[in-house]
């Protein structure tokens, strides 16, 4: 049973997902820049604008976590799971995340930041 309220756990999970999302977008940006697209600048602009938005969200997340004495650390990773240590108001909790679930959540966030947030 977790002692972390749902809202704060969501924020702590954002501290996991948003850096992963930035890693994916950085790799994609390099791929786009090396590609043979005739008009690649619009794609580059879209990815860079999305990354800027995510950086802003990540900064807000980190500020909130620092203010509320929250921290997330990756402890262990294997083929199937990644374990994180959540530090929350003096409490320590270990949370295991199924790696395909992490990937799927990052994909959901990628879809959201690239286009769903613009469609309401």
UniProtKB/TrEMBL annotation:
<dbReference type="InterPro" id="IPR058600">
    <property type="entry name" value="YhjD-like"/>
</dbReference>
<dbReference type="Pfam" id="PF26325">
    <property type="entry name" value="YhjD"/>
</dbReference>
<protein>
    <recommendedName>
        <fullName>YhjD</fullName>
    </recommendedName>
</protein>
